[in-house]
Amino acid sequence: MRRVARVATAALAVLALAAVSPGAAQALPSADPPASGPPPAPASAGDDGKGLPEGWRLAGEGAGKELVWASPEPVPMGDARVEFYAGDKLLGRPVAARDGRSFWLPLNGARIGPAKQLKVLAAGRRLDEAGTDAESRGPRPGPSVRPATPPPANAVDPGKPGRYRTATGTYTLDSVRLPGFPAPVEMKADVIGPTDAPGKRPLVLFLHGRHYTCYGAGDRQGMGWPCLSGTKPVPSHKGYHRAQKLLASQGYVTVSIAANGINGQDDVAEDGGAQARSSLVRQHLARWADWAEKRSTAPAGVRAVAPADPSRVLLVGHSRGGEGVNRAALDSLSPPPADQDGYRGPVRWKIRGNVLIGPTVFGQNPVPDVPSTTILPGCDGDVSDLQGEIYVDGTRGVSRGAALHSAVYMVGANHNFFNSEWTPGQATAPADDDFSSDDTTDPVCSKGTATRLTATRQQAAGATYIAASARLFVAGDDRVRPLLDGSGRRAPSADPARVLTHAVGGHRTQALLPGSSTKVKGGRVCAQVPARDADACLPSRTAGSSPHFAHWEVAPEPGRDAVAMRWSRAGDPVRMSPARPVSLAGAKDVALRVIVPPNTTGTRFDVALVDASGHRAKLGRVGVDGLPGSGRTSSYWGREVRVPLSAAARDALDLKHVKTLELTPRSRSGKAWLMDAWGWRPGTPAVRPAELPRVDLGRLTVKEGDSGVRTYSVPVRVSGQGSGKVRLFMPKPGTDDFTHRTLTVRPGESVDVPVEVRGDTRYGYDVGHDAFVKAVRGAVVGSHHGGVTARNDDPMPKITLEPVKDRVTEGKPLKWRMTLSEPVDVDIMAELSFLPVDSGTELSTLDVDPAWLEAQFGARPRPERPLSKMAEGQGLYLSVPAGEKSADVRVPTIKDRTGEPEESLKAQLHVYDENWEPQPGPVVTGTVRDAS
User: Rounded CA gap, 31 and 62, in Å?
Assistant: First the structure.
């Protein structure tokens, strides 16, 4: 991260409701923030009466109060969302000013708790420097653990190039408009495919993640769309050529599509752009379906390779692109609401599987009936909580369970290097290593450590596991399944990367899925997202984190549990019983997913089963070693271990009525967590998607009114077939908390989610009242986030700018006063922009206080230049705090020993309106006389 001077920051802005959750009610400005803003005020009192940490402040009052954090340097654009926490409580998700340094979150009266507990996280990674905690800087575990010998090689290595010659092409089509996005989104792609493969070939589509969109000379970077003059788009879609060429040599037609138009606008999307990315993917698939029917209409770059077969499609998504292709797979099975969708045509393709690389999963709504592989980079510095694990865990029990969902943990891989255009030394535009060690050395992930992968090795391993997924999901070659399903095999082409896998689905039958009805002796059912540490699987002060326990929109979150085990001597069993006996008839093994602390070795368990008649059989012993980890990694990850159901065990037990699973520790002391247990047998079953109801939340926008309380309902749309269960989280009136209920949904039936809106007569922000939904069983969820937005319907007050001292002797400050006609509930922000003077000598950088110049503009006095020429777009920011009517703005001058004529300045006030557009205001002038 490039170090910069501390300059004026903090734009008073939160972009639409996508930026703000999960408080039950949140105040919202209604459009884009300004490019930058005023410096944060000195530490002010928190709501407990104590001062806020450095870099934090409170702005506004009452319903308009906001929590502000300003970073001393820009926070790079990435895929993870920035979040404010008070201890373990998620306060909400702010949006940055365009300078990337300051973040504002409306509180709407909610308490923030003890000021010292404030922190800023992005996917579990701490961004603020105020204080330390175990999540980011806690005691680091001991030396990294590496296996004595690598696992056996798989019989088939999908990383070996195939026999087909390949060709590369491109296409650019007319841009498309997507709902909620002001600017059109590009339709541009790179195509790599075989030239001599027979017949129609399977199609693999790549979608990159969220990266900065534009670049120019030097280190100039842009995050908007379209690119400004003097900059050009970052070619993120060209970053997967290595994987594309491997697949093309094996007979797949591949296409990697550009999505800068979404990246530059998805801050206005409630779902982080998932629906927009799905629409873009399906727009491209529709074109490929057209070209499959009439090849002569295809662009030359498409005709240069073998024809594609749209009935055999694999989607590959990186980061937010992963969430986008997950949504595309869902939308291809169950159409989204038309007003949310950017593709309206028929589905003329079939998605056979997904590969998700370091993905986000903001909605935590994985599509259960499309097989998937999720690559989890062990040194991910962007989506560092490895929340993509939810694409595995979140499918359990939702549908039939036939689709295989695999997690591939790649030790030493970071987030960016899977894309060569995000990799230093390979990229066209500026790029960096997302895992930054700052001034310290991380024992696992710092460059040069034994566990950290180089970019080329990471890319080779990534391409190998993408090819494995294509071969299993699309080509149906079961010989590669052991590379993905926790069978403990390796692909030599990925060496020396250490890659571990586990899976759910496939030929598995549920033995134990911990929950509130699970009976446990010798351990306890623990909450993955708890209300308090006493219930937690991992206490909040734990160094490092678990991908399995990634937070969602609300906390606590019911329905996500594991079994926690802790022992101080060997031999005391932990007995776990589901609510009713289960059948393991037909299973070959019992598979367990067990977490042990990172860097530990020698954890051993004896595994036994007890049937409903009380018969007991010992199955065998398993060993589990921890992953390499540190306080900055998400290494509490479930290792898959299996014990066979031997002939003796089958004779001793009634496998159709298994009542209890026993794990008896054989190591002297330790701790572990059981995620789940399954009956397992080899093979990959055919997947037939179930006909399920689909739930989408919408957003209703209403006027707040002048008084009283009105009740509205959050739009809930249920489509599809059949009935299923979802868990609905609703705002609790008068608080920032949520209530929840599990309900059965059916197409055509209404779901009532009431929201209260209070009216007033003072100018303020829009207020969003949020609701969330998650699938439980027999249903799928598209848009998980909706609510009711109460629009501010009170006008902004009239604003004037009058001189206080506009003629001074050098050494004295020039001063003006901005005055409102009436007080309001929010801070009123404005910018005073310097203009060239009409005549005479203009005040220069050598005529003003250098400390003021540095603090306000990050500028130095030399070389001397008029104030109007300091830098394009730089202005002097000021605000009138909520509840007050005026604020002064000053330009401090300095006294020198040089005789000189009068100097002057000219400036114009621009006030940010309710749409966060700067509106021109009065022009003022000031004169400085020589003091000699």
Answer: 22
